Amino acid sequence: MGVHSGIRKHATHCGYLLIMVFALFSFAATGQTPQTPQAPSPIKLMPMPATVTPTAGRLLVPQTFSVGIAGYNEPRLERAAQRFLRDLSRQTGYFLSERLADASRATLTIHADHGGEPVQDLGADESYVLEVSSAGAKLAAPNPLGIMHGLQTFLQLVEVTPEGYAAPAIHVEDTPRFPWRGLSIDVSRHFISMEVLQRNVDAMAAAKLNVLHLHLSDDQGFRLESKEYPKLQELGSDGMYYRQSEMRELIAYASDRGIRIVPEFDMPGHSTAWFVGYPDLSSAAGPYQIERRWGIFDPAMDPTRESTYKFLDKFIAEMASIFPDRYFHIGGDEVNGKQWDANPKISEFKQAHNLKNNQELQQYFTVRIEKIVSKHHKSMVGWDEILTPGMPKDIVIQSWRGQESLAEAARQGYRGILSSGYYLDAIQPAEQHYLVDPVSGAGATLTAEQQKLILGGEACMWEEFASDESIESRIWPRAAAVAERLWSPQQLQDVNSMYRRLAAFSARLEQLGLTHRSSSEVMLARIAGTDDIAALQVLARAVQPASLTIRETEAQKAGGIQTSDVPLNRMVDAISPESEAARKFSSAVDLFIASKFQDTTVESYIRQKLQEWRDNDSALQSLLQNSFLLKEVAPVSQNLASLGVAGAQALDYIDAHQAAPAAWKLQQVAMIQQVAKPTADLVLAVAPAVQKLVEASSAAVVAP
Amino acid sequence: MGVHSGIRKHATHCGYLLIMVFALFSFAATGQTPQTPQAPSPIKLMPMPATVTPTAGRLLVPQTFSVGIAGYNEPRLERAAQRFLRDLSRQTGYFLSERLADASRATLTIHADHGGEPVQDLGADESYVLEVSSAGAKLAAPNPLGIMHGLQTFLQLVEVTPEGYAAPAIHVEDTPRFPWRGLSIDVSRHFISMEVLQRNVDAMAAAKLNVLHLHLSDDQGFRLESKEYPKLQELGSDGMYYRQSEMRELIAYASDRGIRIVPEFDMPGHSTAWFVGYPDLSSAAGPYQIERRWGIFDPAMDPTRESTYKFLDKFIAEMASIFPDRYFHIGGDEVNGKQWDANPKISEFKQAHNLKNNQELQQYFTVRIEKIVSKHHKSMVGWDEILTPGMPKDIVIQSWRGQESLAEAARQGYRGILSSGYYLDAIQPAEQHYLVDPVSGAGATLTAEQQKLILGGEACMWEEFASDESIESRIWPRAAAVAERLWSPQQLQDVNSMYRRLAAFSARLEQLGLTHRSSSEVMLARIAGTDDIAALQVLARAVQPASLTIRETEAQKAGGIQTSDVPLNRMVDAISPESEAARKFSSAVDLFIASKFQDTTVESYIRQKLQEWRDNDSALQSLLQNSFLLKEVAPVSQNLASLGVAGAQALDYIDAHQAAPAAWKLQQVAMIQQVAKPTADLVLAVAPAVQKLVEASSAAVVAP
After folding, report:
1. Which CATH architecture has domain A180-494?
2. Which strand (E) or helix (H) includes residue B312?
3. What ipTM was predicted for this assembly?
4. N or C: which end of chain B has fewer CB within 10 A?
5. pLDDT digits (tens, 9 = 90+) for A229-285
6. A93 contacts B523? CB cut-off 8 A
């Protein structure tokens, strides 16, 4: 699987909002006026539980806070409780004892009815009930999975107050909407270290995601040690692969957090890295090199030779012994068929077996692979392409093509998960992912029985334009918006509420040790060659990376071929995929216009931002001149200054109760549309709001 | 060893500056005027090498940069070269291949004459010669230790330029001034995780420190697994201890970076944690509990019983097998003797053995322990107290008492290392540590032969008021100032140069993964309960923690006993020990006054800061009201506003060419001295500079 384009936006169901949820989020968006004391903060849970009932009072969380286990117990449950105490320590700065207390005296009592399955199953019950009162908290669940989720909910409830740390009194009854809530990480295009994978697991647990899908092989690298076929990693990875012992540790780490790991070994295409060590697997004579470019390439396994299946049988047997999960992903996407067409023996085989085209040849391959996978007691997962007449109903389709493809599979009785619309590397706002629903669109036309076959979805992070140091900022916090879509009631569609809670979630992640923000600062300092980067950060906050499609197009236009060797050390790589500052500014402009230009507090915030941008270009000059990595950024900084000037002029017109001249407006809008175009793969995310302001200033003028 | 006070400042030798070094640092301190393009940046090496000769040109460092090993080779050297490539990747964002190149074609060629000792020795040659020209770089050293240091130097030379990454052409001949350059970390008062210790080792390697001294036991915790005496860690550590396998890994990790690990097990005092599991070791009947308070306590080992020595013989044998280093630290400090006085059998023993007092009793103990230590092929290290008539000359004295104590030891023929003056937990500016020299003061009166007995020094980080999340900010970057004192020529005394290079070093550390800055942000966000902490950061940058002495005194005044359970989650724990912003502001004020109020660029910087402080208090109100942890900070914020107002008024007088009235000045100075007093364990570090400005405004007025 690679860089798919054509991600479709979905019409969303405008269902009713749960009354409770609505009550929690009915407060108005604030204009960020730091002078006014803040209202008691609303509950910032993410993902939002199925039902939440606030009750009276709150539970203080002092350093004597303790946890006790009543009912069923097992080591995994104890570790979860101890981890909870460690997390709470981090969140409060208290030195909490990790020793579990007697359940009758504990502040928080945990009660699981029974244990979980030795290997976490897709259908496992993940529900829990959490009751917080001023006297204490009780968390109950059928099994440890629900307990883990409930502990995460409790952690999110604890906040600093004027009187100490506290959790509001509340009654939560919660269960996920979908059983398969995944994050897929491509570790082939750029290698991702175990340390970073672990941090992602931590974040997944916080977001109640439960499947980590690892894309372990592709043209650009084979990333897991095979003892049966050691040349896979020895020649196919540049030395960058996981040892089996490391992978086993990660599996245990994830399992302890209620997360399954599903391995993917892409076949028969996307497989050049296999052939460096084992050219006989391929459909054309070798030798092969690890592919350095991005794209879809010719090499494919030879589906006509028995030796291919013998190899894969042994290989899958080995991998099945490492990954305990029931599901085994064989990729199966994007075979261009060129090697097959060029190989006369393969043509003969097709004729002999009455396979009309390469699609049917791949179907032949997939059917045989499915038999091998199921022989090793696994259910096969693959991308849309694996859906083939005669496939057993046991397989799972992961759809990069979209809801229609997924719905079609369901109509045929196949289970599926949605990834189209959830591609994090595409660089879309969280909002866009959030509003994609696995069973809206074509999915909405399914019967209730068919809808049950839609198991959930996976956020996907392809690694062409991300590496160890930027992947966290690419995934988080936006993946949590997908997590909420997959966990919470479908009716939850309030984007403003989502963003408010996402911001709180993001801040929590830094406390868990994620580097999605701090890494950005370190990268900016590196780019600038100094840590005196205040001016660079003003610019960084006002921009966003251009979409993936634009970045690819620009690279092609520049004549450069984008490869895995090209450094990802530019400004575009260091910044967040979504500008929080732009969103804030934009909603301030909306508020200001809605107030008919009367809200002076909001206006002064807007003016201050515009001035900051106007003045920032000169403040940035010395940095721009100092670093070769900032040369491309210079015009963006100038453009930001132009936006600042235009916006400030618009405010001047408004303050003078004088409609801005039409000619001026036209000129400014033309300029804004010009500067809004991507430069250096950066987009000035604040441009649309400035344009709105300019347009508003030339419209009706409100008297004082 | 504990919280020692009485750290003395030393008169420093005003020696000549090396011409070369002087040339490198003769540029004037800038007033941080971001508009003017920066001059080519000076070489920012830290510690400064013994000799540095800049030559013409520079070496570009592109993604094809490669390293080759000529001459002697060994796995450790290869790992060092690969680590260098990884570090360089991090520093540039390039995907550098870790594969070593053919030496004849490599950009950087490494040549070691021979291998190092299997166990790194105190006297090992650490010198190297580094030659960088536009054609390439050559690094030569007698053994791998020098190579490692030279690689660090090269990394510090690489910087971003308008044309790409580059290292200036240069000839460096370098060797350390002292062979023992240590960092001591107390892991007993608060446990420090292995992960954090590893990061400290990374930072030590960057600073060319070569001894990590671990204070592994004290009244508050016994932190290393003993298999001989498992109750030591089982009952003496609250479960927070290092497994032997973990310690062995850390030793290997450090050794790979040219760093020795010296363990300390404090005896016969500071040993309560031992007695929880083994009360018979003590001089009074048990049972014992882990000590939670800070201070000097009564429990001490019984030096009169043979069983004590049998126990310690076995124990030291076990520990000697874990730590390969030649040196073994037995502490030996601060025995108050109360348990000895109260025990009739011990009194009898003293009489029987003609030991006149407890000091002589401890000497008896120390002599016997030294025999055990040396039986296990180790040289004993201890604090000043172990210096006892008749001790073999093989021991090493670590001095917390000061240079006089150290000099006295040297006069008697004993080797010593200085720690007095290098206590990082005392919260002093880097400058103060920097100007303390092991052989100045009393040391300067020694003969050349005697001076050679002064082996170097150790920066000490006691952990009463630091924990895993704050220790990095407490140690770094200030420890690098001590590292330079111990590595570089004594004549290097330019504090401004040191601070400039320290800032660059500090930024590098974040790139190495240290959290001394990012952790501060995370803690501030936690304290505030939001990550919208711009106003809190303005305050945080203007303050410093009060000195350790003041913090202790304040805690006592408040009637609270400071214990290991007290959370370290306040503002004082989150901020940097030294305010860079205050130093910058202060030097701007000095520049402005020196310019006779003519430098308008500097003035506008000063005014902007003063206004920022003046306005910050109201911006901070909502946060202050939201968090119980910020209540104590409210008056500090008000005081900062008052400083802003006073300073701005002073500027107004100056701009009006009007001497400020004497009454106004007196009033302001009184106010400043009032607000300069510690509140909430915070000191307004910018107060003295504001006072200077106020005083200057009432003095002679310069005409326009």
Report:
1. Alpha-Beta Barrel (3.20)
2. helix B306-322
3. 0.91
4. C
5. 999 999 999 999 999 999 999 999 999 999 999 999 999 999 999 999 999 999 999
6. yes
